[in-house]
Write a structure and sequence with these properties.
The chain has about 170 residues and is α+β, with helices and mostly antiparallel strands. It has two helices and ten strands, in the order αββββββαββββ. Strand 5 and strand 6 form a beta hairpin.
Length: about 170
């Protein structure tokens, strides 16, 4: 009895949330990426970060490219944080995960393999590039609100919260 009530409440809350904020699952989205930028980087940890959003030619979807050279190995000493900023909901931290722990989530492991071509941790110091990045990824498990969304992605030291690199990207859904 308690389980069926809990299931009903969960389904009802998801329905209300989807209706109220016009959220969609990523598989149903038509998202347009804009203005990828590097907002900050610490030259002691990251060298030459670049971000670019463009398309191959007219009629093709916009894709984003990120490139950066790490100067130290990254393991669970570095945390990846994702924050969505939306007019209606404000700044919503979506997740914060240590970079090696990210491989334990199937959707993140697939994303890392697809765009960064690595499955091992720690990540050695080298140049990492993500070319023709599709954001949000099709296997992204969270609902995404309609409208203009500013995405902030941070890499920071786990212990001190010192920001190593901060990226920004606007998505119109």
């Amino acid at each position: 009895m308690r389980m069926s009530v809990l299931l009903f409440i969960t389904i009802f809350c998801v329905f209300i949330c989807d209706a109220q904020f016009k959220m969609q699952r990523v598989a149903n989205l038509q998202a347009v990426q804009e203005r990828a930028m590097v907002l900050y980087h610490d030259p002691d940890y990251v060298k030459d970060p670049q971000a670019f959003t463009g398309r191959l030619k007219r009629g093709y979807p916009y894709r984003t490219n990120f490139t950066a050279t790490t100067l130290h190995p990254w393991a669970n000493n570095v945390t990846f944080s994702l924050v969505l900023s939306h007019k209606r909901t404000g700044n919503d931290p979506i997740m914060a995960v240590r970079v090696c722990d990210a491989l334990s989530h199937s959707w993140m492991a697939e994303f890392i393999w697809t765009y960064f071509h690595t499955k091992t941790c720690p990540y050695p110091p080298r140049t990492y590039s993500a070319v023709n990045l599709e954001l949000p990824p099709k296997n992204y498990p969270f609902p995404v609100p309609k409208g203009d969304i500013q995405i902030f992605a941070y890499f920071s030291l786990t212990e001190s919260k010192h920001i190593l690199v901060k990226y920004s990207l606007k998505i119109h859904v």
